Predict the 3D structure of the following.
Amino acid sequence: MLPVWLLIVVFVSIHGQQSSPWIGTFKTDNTCNQQLCCCLNRNVKISEQDANHLKLSAPLAGQCGSEKEIEMQVVKPTGYTTIIYLGGQPFAIKLSADSKTIILDNGVHPECSGKAVRNSVSGMTTSTNYYYLYCIMITSIALLIRQS
């Protein structure tokens, strides 16, 4: 009976650790006009801060005053869109369905909008979690059969 309980505990643990599609590192393009705007520059890193929040950190370029980098907490989106405020400006953030591209859309100043393409994923992905889960399930089933 112990292997069945172990299997249930492992399944719940792994299932609860599914990675957010937002987590990873994204490389910005040059669509944000640095002559007019303060822009996210180069690598934008999105990591998990806690169960309800993500942390966004990125170098800045352009009209940013003395600010060289941004680090901010963002409420973890439940879908593929969210709104954040950078420099007091609202940005509609959209993650593509394949989770490879982020569009930063500034509706007030479109010249300050931009795009970033994923270049890495942080942490274990959902498919990796399920791979480990299946390995553990097969091992547990083999142990159950062996005990019978």
